[in-house]
């Protein structure tokens, strides 16, 4: 496949992979397993940098293999990452829910806390539906 039709790797660490999708959004794909907070912070900071560098406001959060967020991760995402990434503008996130029930609960908690922020999101059971929603956005 050509670079125009397939996502390009932007960053990778033990937490997961960040990809640039040619349709103008970031893919934030989490790996399974435990994470440490500093790796999570680096991973999501790079996601913010990707969005800013490209002028994008959309992301696909592929969390289907993800382990539950820890309390420290939830706090950091809510208190630091969402506000810093949005910088006064809306961000649209299509989140593919994890298979693990506890991970689903932790994602729901983070997302409900993020409702007060500039993050507009929808939760999906599969990537096809998530991509379809992103394609409808401006």
How would you describe the overall organization of this protein?
This is STAS/SEC14 domain-containing protein. It comes from Hymenobacter nitidus. The structure is a single chain. With 138 residues, the protein is an alpha/beta fold. It has a single domain (8-136), classed as Transcription Regulator spoIIAA. 42% of the residues lie in helices and 25% in strands. It contains 4 helices and 6 strands. It has helices at 37-54, 71-86, 101-114, 127-136; strands spanning 8-13, 16-21, 25-30, 58-62, 91-96, 119-124. The protein has a 6-stranded mixed β-sheet, with helices on both faces. Helix 2 packs parallel to helix 3. The protein is globular, with a radius of gyration of 14 Å. The protein starts with 7 loop residues before the first strand and ends with a helix.
Strand and helix map with partners:
Blueprint: E1 8-13, E2 16-21, E3 25-30, H1 37-54, E4 58-62, H2 71-86, E5 91-96, H3 101-114, E6 119-124, H4 127-136
Parallel strand pairs: 3-4, 4-5, 5-6
Antiparallel strand pairs: 1-2, 2-3
Q: Do you know the CATH topology?
A: Transcription Regulator spoIIAA
How is the biggest beta sheet arranged?
A: 6 strands, mixed
- Shape assignment: globular
**Through-space gap between termini:** 26 Å
Tally of separate helices: 4
Which superfamily, in CATH terms, is the homologous superfamily? STAS domain
What is the CATH class?
A: Alpha Beta
Main sheet: strand order? 1-2-3-4-5-6
Provide the low-confidence segments as ranges. Answer: none
Secondary-structure class: alpha/beta
Level-2 CATH architecture: 2-Layer Sandwich
The average pLDDT value, as a whole number, equals: 88
Radius of gyration: 14 Å
- In total, the number of strands is 6
Strand content: 25-35%
């Amino acid at each position: 496949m050509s670079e125009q039709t397939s996502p390009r790797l932007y960053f990778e660490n033990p937490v997961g992979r960040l990809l640039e999708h040619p349709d103008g959004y970031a893919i934030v794909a989490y790996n399974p397993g435990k994470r440490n907070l500093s790796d999570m912070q680096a991973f999501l900071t790079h996601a913010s940098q990707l969005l800013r560098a490209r002028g994008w406001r959309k992301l696909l959060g592929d969390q289907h293999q993800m382990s539950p967020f820890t309390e420290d991760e939830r706090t950091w995402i809510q208190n630091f990452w969402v506000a810093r990434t949005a910088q006064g503008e809306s961000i649209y996130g299509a989140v593919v829910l994890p298979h693990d029930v506890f991970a689903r609960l932790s994602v729901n908690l983070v997302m409900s806390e993020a409702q007060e922020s500039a993050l507009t999101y929808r939760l999906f059971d599969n990537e096809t539906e998530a991509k379809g929603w992103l394609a409808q956005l401006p």
